[in-house]
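Can anyone check this?
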Amino acid sequence: MQKSYRAPNPGENRTWFLVDAKDQSLGRLAVVVANKLRAKDLPTFDPSVDAGAFVIVTNAAQVKLTGNKEEQKEYQRYSGYRNGLKRFSAAEMRASHPDRMIKEAVWGMLPKNNIARKMMTRLKVFAGAEHTHAAQKPVEIKL
């Protein structure tokens, strides 16, 4: 009887990737980031094993939205109280929290389970060009 292969959890030996979001389409950027977080680009991909990498995204404030999404796309947040639903346009979100645009786009492309919540902790998004993870020597991804 053959045994199926199960990829080991890399633990502390995860690779770090750096992505520059300047003038990149939000959806296409989120696909690349989600695939790196899930390790779908590796030949040992297993959906039940958290073997993905760390991903650093810089210049989140300069990500590109196509068409009229800047005014028409809405983000919403609910506090749990009556009348607690808040709606924001993409322009308002970019002005106040540009990192949340990328985080919400990536979250929408991950499975909704405990592993995905762990994956989201490995996503580091910065509004500007500087980041605090230079010591990890991330590999830059060209999109």
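Reply from J.R.: I decoded it. The mean pLDDT is 94.
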